[in-house]
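Q: Convert this sequence to structure tokens.
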Amino acid sequence: MPVEMLNDRQIRPTEYRKWRHAEDRFARRDKDRRILEELEASIPKRGLTVPIQLGISARYPTDVYVADGHHRAVALRNLGVDEFPFHWYWIRSSGVRWETEPFPYHVLGL
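A:
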């Protein structure tokens, strides 16, 4: 998945209104800042070893967000990396199911 899709229109953060809010919070808190520093040091050497988890709402299919991996996403954005590994799932009224099908890129407005 292209890192440029981690933006406020296509793949949004779950826990924050905008990516800028996540970045600001991570910069203010020592623990978060240390996590980012470790990721930004390790990613250029080993790549991203834990995929980012993306969720898509079946009710609002254009609602794609980072379910797990906010620190990893911010580190990738800061580093200017081109692509990132991910897993994804649909959120349905019947529950959550990890997908093995190709990601539906059309939901990102591509």
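The chain has one domain: 3-108.
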